[in-house]
Write a structure and sequence with these properties.
Elements: E1 12-13, E2 17-21, H1 24-32, H2 47-58, E3 68-73, E4 78-89, E5 92-99, H3 108-120, E6 128-134, H4 138-146, E7 150-154, E8 158-163
Parallel strand pairs: 5-6
Antiparallel strand pairs: 1-2, 2-3, 3-4, 4-5, 6-8, 7-8
């Protein structure tokens, strides 16, 4: 695949996806938004991907093993979204994800979320994995539930989900 991941950031491979670190050149291309790379799905990067690319540009340390990744569709080699971990705090690590509209409804978001959540539990000192979802986005809540997370709380606009460390999908095989 084009670009290269840092040596300390191995790819995570699922049945249909590869989660790989963002190559530096692609971070710049996604932030600037000029031109298209041939291995991007026709609607990548989506707005959320541009936000993540901007975050990476400002915090390049987020490209480490427990950081931000692109979602690659194995069948085509195309980048179809992004998933990533945010710096842990007090044994808890949070993740976020997004799949471009052209690839939604295929289960990719749940597959990527399941893989990144399980991997997150391998981070030193991490015992809890969390994700937040806007209550106005029930499809995203279903993604988290399919990935094995449980809703633990909610406020006016956000639900919080958590993967307990003893959950069967909480350890990579």
């Amino acid at each position: 695949m084009p670009g290269s991941a840092p040596a300390s950031c191995p790819d995570l491979t699922t049945d249909r996806l590869v989660l790989r670190s963002w190559p530096t050149a692609e971070v710049s291309a996604a932030v600037v938004g000029e031109g298209r790379l041939s291995h991007w799905a026709e609607d990548f990067p989506a707005e959320g991907d541009r936000v993540i690319a901007g975050f990476i540009a400002e915090h390049p340390d987020t490209l480490g093993p427990y950081g931000q990744r692109q979602i690659v569709e194995r069948a085509t080699g195309l980048i179809v979204g992004a998933v990533g971990l945010f710096p842990p705090a007090e044994g808890t690590i949070e993740f976020g994800y997004g799949i471009v509209p052209s690839r939604r409804g295929r289960g990719y978001a749940s597959e990527a979320a399941r893989a990144i959540a399980a991997f997150a539990l391998t981070a030193p000192g991490v015992h809890t994995v969390r994700a937040n979802v806007e209550l106005s986005n029930p499809a995203s809540a279903r993604v988290l539930e399919k990935a094995g997370l449980t809703r633990v709380s909610a406020d006016d606009g956000t639900a919080r989900y958590q993967l307990p460390p003893d959950h069967p999908s909480g350890r990579m095989s």
